[in-house]
């Protein structure tokens, strides 16, 4: 059965499409052609998932459109929690390195465990403030793009999925070397580039506006960091 118009998107021109392919049975499939650009609606349906992942890592808009519009991926919530756990673990390790306390007392171990939960909470609040900054900026500058609740949900899903780069934090610390701080900085930049591409693809914007939104998101996030520091918390 044919889906309603707009159920899928062309990965090349972002035009709406009713179907990705037509099944002629007996194993014969024909990829649909976009009526706007006359190119295959989604060439990635024939590709191996590893190739799609590589294209996503390269921040190709076509790969992002395939993942966001033409698949039923529903791991954004779990991925967000896992990325926050990775970030909390890195901060917790750095906090332990600075404390230099080797006392095996149960109270000390409990305090260290509480420090991990605190770092998870701080990382969650920082990411939330970063997203809020992005949403406020985009809603203020392009209100017509975020009229419906579904638009907000899709953008949130795109932002959560595009934070997958934080998973690289763990191997960067496990294989610790003199360049670890530089690696962590590169991971941060990569995540921001992924966020920018996710915003651009989801709302079909130019390259400048997503970075403008990310800039204000970072300002709000750093404001939260400064607030924690004034409260005397290690972040």
From TrEMBL:
GO terms for cellular component: cortical endoplasmic reticulum; endoplasmic reticulum membrane; Golgi apparatus. Keywords: Endoplasmic reticulum, Lipid metabolism, Lipid transport, Membrane, Transmembrane, Transmembrane helix, Transport. Its main location: endoplasmic reticulum. The chain crosses the membrane at residues 119-140, 152-175, 182-202, 208-228. One of its GO terms (biological process) is intracellular sterol transport. It is a multi-pass membrane protein. It is found in: Endoplasmic reticulum membrane. It comes from the Eukaryota. The keyword Membrane applies. Mediator of sterol homeostasis involved in sterol uptake, trafficking and distribution into membranes. Belongs to the ARV1 family. This is Protein ARV. The gene is Arv1.
């Amino acid at each position: 059965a044919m889906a309603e118009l707009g159920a899928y998107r062309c990965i090349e021109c972002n035009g709406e499409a009713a179907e990705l392919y037509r099944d002629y049975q007996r194993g014969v499939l024909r990829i649909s052609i976009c009526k706007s650009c006359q190119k295959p609606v989604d060439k990635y349906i024939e590709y191996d998932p590893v190739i799609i992942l590589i294209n996503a890592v390269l921040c190709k808009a076509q790969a992002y459109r395939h993942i966001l519009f033409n698949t039923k991926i529903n791991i954004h919530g779990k991925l967000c929690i896992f990325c926050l756990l990775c970030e909390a673990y890195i901060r917790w390790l750095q906090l332990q390195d600075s404390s230099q306390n080797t006392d095996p007392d149960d109270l000390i171990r409990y305090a260290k465990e509480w420090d991990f939960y605190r770092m998870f909470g701080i990382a969650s609040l920082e990411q939330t403030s970063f997203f809020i900054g992005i949403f406020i900026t985009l809603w203020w500058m392009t209100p017509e793009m975020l009229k419906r609740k579904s638009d907000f949900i899709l953008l949130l899903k795109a932002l959560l999925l595009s934070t997958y780069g934080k998973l690289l934090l763990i191997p960067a610390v496990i294989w610790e070397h003199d360049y670890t701080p530089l690696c962590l900085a590169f991971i941060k930049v990569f995540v921001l580039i992924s966020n920018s591409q996710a915003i651009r693809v989801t709302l079909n914007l130019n390259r400048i506006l997503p970075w403008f939104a990310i800039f204000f998101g970072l300002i709000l996030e750093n404001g939260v960091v400064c607030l924690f520091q004034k409260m005397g918390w290690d972040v």
